[in-house]
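My hope is that you will study the protein record below before we discuss the fold together.
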Amino acid sequence: MRFLLCLPLALMIIVSTATYGDESHERTQFGRDIVVGPNEEVSDATCFGCSVRIRGHVTGDVTTFGGSVVLEDQGEIAGDTTTFGGNIRLSKGVKINGDVTVFGGRLRRDPEATIHGDVANFGGPIWLFVIFGLPLLLLGAFIALIVWLVRRLLRPALPAAA
C-alpha cells in the first residue's frame, strides 16, 4: 500500500529531474567549494559555507554565504556577485557585468578588473552583526517575552492571607 502512495511522488521527481537536468547548469553546494574551469559555462553559482573559484563564464549570479568569490584567468560573471561573510578577489582582466555586494568581508580588485554595475562594500564584522545578529537578538527577546507572559498567565493564584 505504501508503495502505491509513494509511486506518484517518485515518478514526479524522476520526470522533473529528467526534464530539466540537461538545461540547468546551476551549481549549488553546501560546504564544498565550486570551481568553474576555463572552458566551462554555468548559469548560477550558490555556495553555503564554501567558496566559488571562477576561471570560466557564469551567465547568471554568484552568491556565497560564509565563503569567498575568486575570479581569475579572464573569468566573467554576467550577473550580480554577492558575498555574506566572505571576500571577493578579482584578478587582472576579469569582468563582472552586474553589481558587486560584499557584506562583512573585503573586495580585493586588480586595477585592470572590470565591474560594469554598482559596488557596495559593507566591510567588517559589525555589518554581519547588524544583518544577522540583531534580528536573531530581537527574535530571542520576543520569544523570551512570550515565555514570560505564558508563565505569568499560568501561575496559580495565591490564597488570601487569613
